[in-house]
Each structure stands twice: as C-alpha cells, then as structure tokens.
Specification:
This protein has 302 residues and is α/β, with parallel strands linked by helices. Helices cover 35% and strands 29% of the residues.
C-alpha cells in the first residue's frame, strides 16, 4: 500500500469452497472517486465484503485508510460508510428517526445527531419527506435514504453498491449528481456498478474485475482514450498500417477500418502523413472515443 492510496490489496484471494471469487488481486486506489466495475460474478461483492471486514480473505491482505481490513475492521468501520444494494431499510420508522439512530450509532451526541440527520436529509433532497415512514417511500427515495445513512457520520470513505439500481432516468440523474458532489465534502467514494456509463460520469479512477482477477486499474482519462482516430480505407490497409507502426503509433484494425492512437504525437498528424506517404485513399476519417465498455470487452476477450 502506498502512502497516498486509500484502499489497497496484495495477492488478495477468496474462495467459497471450490468456487474462487477472487484470485491474486493487487491494486492501490488513490483518494477521490473510484468505480468498481465488472460483470455479475466478477468478484465485486466479495471484494466489498472483505473491505468491510465481513469476509476474511482466503489469502492475501486488504487495507482501508491505512488499516488492515481483517485485523482492524472496527477502526475501518468507524471511518467508512456503506450503501448496500438491497432493500434493507426499516419500514416502521421515519427517515428522520432512522438517520438520528444511524448518527448515534456512529458516536454523535443526541443534539449533534439530530442536526446532522436534518442536514444530510436536506442534502439528498428528502427534507420535505423526513417525517414519512420509510415503508411508504418510493424506490428513488429509498436509495436517497440509504445514501444519507452512509454519510450521516461524515465518513472518510463511502462504499456505494449499485446506487442507481431501480431508478428512473430522472432519479438516476439526481443520484449521479449527488455522488459527484461527495468529493466536495471531503468524502472518498468507491462505486460498484455494472452500468459503465454511470462510472464514466462520476469517477476519476476505475478498477475493473473479470473472473475474480484485476482486468484494469488506472485513471479514467487513461483508460478511456478520446484521442483515437478512426479511418475507413479504400482498398488494402497493409501499407498504411505498416507506415503508422513504423512511426510509433498504436494501430488496430478491423477489415477496412484502422484505429490509431499515440502518446507522443497528435494521431491526426500521423494519419495525415501516412496517407500521403502511402498514397492511400479513404472513405472517412474522424475521432473515435473509446468507452469503458470498449475497454472491458477488449480486456475480457468478449
């Protein structure tokens, strides 16, 4: 674990009998907003449970905010918040009562707990509904209430498990806006989601899991490359590809389509010069933005 990472794992593995959920997982996540992505069965839920101290890893170690998640789970839990995916709210109390209890369990005195509950319910847009029983809440309101309880004690880090699950388009937009705002309050975020577009909109760093292994881990800006040129070539692409590769470009192709990127040089200039040098004709040419879905599918081999 580096001095600047807030969550890290070293050779982390966990098995449920003969089923291996995590295998040789290594990563270090910086402060900020990180997206945890992967298909169902990738190991996301298992990883979150280990970070919370609910599961003990079969091998390896995980650290959260400088504490061993297995041996020092009480120190970890006192500094983090957790928004679970499932419907877990008590139905017979109001949102205000629920938040006051949650703040009290985190150690806030009674007066401070009441004030904090009021402030957080206002923040998530439930100020007018705070005296309604949670059992009468809509799905969107329940998601907001779960987020509120996760941050009512002002944690250093919050783990959000599928925070937009079940929300309509308007509710999704509002939830994503709330997640984006958490950094302004000094709260680090780990968002677990299978909706890659949500991660692209809210996160700065991405941890991808596939089959219990780390597929990618890095800044979103590096994984999602907007500086790629897509060229549709007339005729054979070989000469163009060879020239671009010799010039140091990163080149991929599919049929008549050639995709070009470069860390050092403007790829448009590389393509322009290569087209002139090889006398290659094209049908079209323009920027190609790589999405997280492209990165995931490429890395997983699908």
């Amino acid at each position: 674990m580096t001095d600047t990472s807030i969550i890290a794992a070293t050779n982390l593995g966990h098995a449920y009998s003969s089923i291996v959920a995590l295998h040789g997982v290594d990563f270090a996540l910086p402060a900020g907003r990180t997206g945890l992505v992967g298909a169902n069965g990738a190991g996301k839920t298992t990883l979150i449970k280990i970070l919370l101290g609910i599961l003990r890893p079969t091998v390896g170690s995980a650290n959260v905010l400088g504490f061993d998640a297995t041996k020092q789970f009480l120190q970890v839990r006192s500094r983090i918040g957790y928004m679970p995916e499932g419907d877990c709210l008590p139905e017979d109390i109001t949102a205000s009562e629920f938040l006051i209890q949650a703040a009290g369990l985190a150690g806030l005195p009674s007066t401070a707990a009441r004030q904090r509950a009021s402030d957080v319910l206002t923040l998530v847009g439930l100020e007018e509904e705070r005296f309604r029983r949670l059992g009468g809440y809509s799905t969107g309101m329940k998601q907001r209430a779960k987020l509120a309880q996760a941050i009512v004690h002002d944690p250093e880090l919050v783990l959000l498990d599928e925070p937009t699950a079940g929300l309509d388009p308007e509710g999704r937009e509002e939830m994503l806006e709330l997640i984006s705002r958490l950094g302004g309050f000094g709260i680090n975020v780990l968002v677990s989601s299978h909706v890659l577009g949500d991660i692209e909109r809210t996160c700065d760093w991405v941890l991808m899991l596939d089959g219990g292994r780390v597929l990618r881990s890095g800044p979103l800006s590096h994984l999602v490359d907007a500086d790629m040129v897509a060229v549709e070539v007339v005729g054979d692409t070989t000469a163009l590809i060879d020239h671009l590769a010799a010039a140091g470009a990163n080149v991929d192709s599919s049929g008549a389509h050639v995709y070009v990127s470069s860390f050092d040089t403007d790829p448009f200039n590389l393509v322009r010069d290569a087209l002139a040098a090889t006398n290659t004709g094209i049908w079209s040419m323009g920027p190609k933005a790589t999405t997280l879905e492209d990165v995931f599918l490429e890395g997983s081999g699908e």
